[in-house]
Amino acid sequence: AGSGAGADMRTEISTAAAFVTRLLRAAGGVGEEQLRCFRECFQEAMREHYKHHWFPLVPSKGSGYRCIRINHKMDPLIGKAAGMIGLSHERLFQLLPSELTLWVDPFEVSYRIGEDGSICVLYESPQPGGKAAKQLESRTSCKEEWRIGRSSPSKSYNMMTVSS
């Protein structure tokens, strides 16, 4: 996991940063140049934060550490990047969902808006080692997840966070 680890995170990190940037753009009132700076700063903050917490051989390891959370508190990495373009936490709370969870793991980036929202996958790539086929079968798409989530939010939530 030497210097190679950083390069491996590139897709996951840029996917996560692009997603949060899209949410900011959709909310309006933030200029393109500011958004570009935000995305770069956010990627940099994640790279720094995840440097020694990225385990492609055990993708779920460190998942909680890498999780980006807005839950009545602003995630420090988003807050830091937003500060670089002069957006206050108050302003961020107006622009972004008040409940947002973003999981940035090796081979997969997914998010959930709201506490019992469905979990949607933004990026997924097969894991080296041939476990991918089995993993995908146990996966549910956003739509199915939404249906399951309606009946038992806590169960589908545990299913996604507890690694098998």
From TrEMBL:
Residues 96-115 form the Anti-proliferative protein domain. One of its GO terms (biological process) is negative regulation of cell population proliferation. GO terms for cellular component: cytoplasm; nucleus. SMART domains: btg1. Gene3D superfamilies: Anti-proliferative protein, N-terminal domain. Belongs to the BTG family. This is BTG1 protein. It comes from Struthidea cinerea.
